[in-house]
Amino acid sequence: MYISARERRILEVLLVKEKTTTVHDLASDLEVSPRTVHRDLKGIEDILKEYGLQLNKKSGVGIEIIGEERSKSKLQAFLFNLSHSEYTPDERQTLILSILLDAAEPVKLLSLANDLNVTIATISNDLNKVEERLTPFALTLIRKRGYGVQLQGEESSKRKVMSSLILNNLDEFEFISIIKENIQRKSSTDMRTVTDRLLGLVDKKKLLVIERKIEEMKDKLPYTIADSAYIGLVVHLALAIERIQQGEEINFDKKYLESIEDSWEFKVAADIVRGLEEAFGLSISYGEIGYITMHLMGAKLRNNQEHLLEDTSLQVGIKAQELIQFVGKAVRMDLTRNVDLFQGLVAHLRPALYRMKQNMRIDNPLLRRIEEDYSELFGVIEQGANRTFPGLHIPKEEIGYLVMHFASALLNKEKAPQQKALIVCSSGIGTSKMLSTKLHQELPGLETENASLFDLEAINREEYDLIISTIPLKNFTGEYILVSPFLTQEEIDRIMEKTSSKNTEGRKGNPFSETQESHRSDNMDFISDIRSVRDCSSAIFDLLTGFTVTENIVASSIEQALTRACTELKGRGTIRDAASVMSHLLKREKTGGLGIPNTTMALYHTRSDDILAPSFTIFRLRECITVNGMDGEEMKMDTILLMLSAETVEAETLEVLSHISTLVIRDEESMKRFQEGSQVTLQDYLTKELEEFFLTKYKQ
To answer: What tens digit of pLDDT does each residue of 196-209 get?
Structure first.
């Protein structure tokens, strides 16, 4: 039976869909007109008949394949086993690119044409498209008559293209199954030809070794790696090992390498490299450690636990507030006091800005839907982002994630939760937050928590009334509901039906028949809550009672000013060793400017074992001195905001200090208040804001 490339792709899409899809969506996926899809559907109906299947067309709803699952599996197996006599143009270009990346010598056009069963003219046209795809990666094609075609560019750029090809063409769960199932050889019914060819760029056995090494090291990071970034890191390292064994090494900028040597990520990257050297019996260059560090810095899980005391976070916080103010004015809504929005943006932007500066591309599978559903907001945020980050190219994929944060904030309504749902989503907090907000809107009694694909097996499912996922959970034995982050009405109805049945089940039980174990769990939760309240209130008490504004300090340098400040704090019993704390502060300054742009303030902060209590104080100088600003420019500074805490400190203390940092940069009025306000007015302001923070945090 002859099946065209387009018919094959349409069948592949329809077979994996668990619900109807529209002709318009199919046309968009295949980059053809709806009329072309309608024409192909006639041939597809004939193919389906041979397998006892039918094409169900619902006017105004969409199309789907109906029939026995066994018949669908047979057709799927046939398509996967099909020796492709033709590929779609996009598949063909992907294969050409993978062949060129894997080739050490020039490849003849005739060889490509024979491999892909097309004419040399078609290959030549495909190469034009391949060149367009290579432009963002700073790679070029050398094309000469009699010579063939060859990729030219930096090794780091080639690896980026390889990673991008694999991650954009490989199903996430397919990849997870590879590294979770001991690299069992996948049968031909499990993998598409294009995917199989792309996976040929790496040795699957190496994937398992690498995944184990990352698993061993990831707990050393002070944060969690997002699932999608975790997969990206495994792919990157597998490619790196392959290329190193082929004699290809990364050239990494020495000056930049020196600037990141003190980071957490560099230390973890060095540990990973040592493990890989031992596992594969090879020597890995220092530059490779820098490249792995770069990936770790861009791989941070976007969660809401970002503290502004982390290096670079305050700089990002200032930019986040600029963007919030711009969007707020455009939509005529004050968003500056939305703490969740601010924290979510800072947590997202920190690794995102790093990725963009390092030309690390990111995929956003929801981009097209975001642009359609939030077209006006998308335009506003794109304009605001370009104004907030001048000189930085911000791809639409990143804009899409920013839109999700703002859309969530604009839609959000607080309701008291009655049931608990686990949301499984691998694209980061933007996607899960969007889904959570939509769920809260439609089902106000639903509390939501997020889980990663890798952690799903270890989670106690009994704690949740239902599990909702934005991606198919293959091999998952439990019951779950598959939805899109945008929630269709049909999906909402299914969730409502499920929660209603859960409510009924809940009412049937005897409320007095709880087990001893559940009582123990409740007791532990209560103790944990009380401990959190105690730690938070203790931190607020220390910060408010220790807050002072010292005026008219005479100093000709930042060293003199900090010496005076630390000596004063030692006299109050806040710090143990003034010289040691000052040394920490100066060391922190060397990693990046601390002056707040468009003000005469600088926020100096550090954590040290010589700090005895959390502290926030302000020191105003009689004369301005020159310091480096957070934007890299020199600036005049006459006000030091000094924020200190112990090296090992409760999360609540960091959260309170972080909130004060947020207040400083909230808006122009707030910055002016900290720059000019008296001790009395600032004490009143901090008391009021921290009271609101405390009551909001513990309102339940």
So the answer is: 566 566 666 677 77
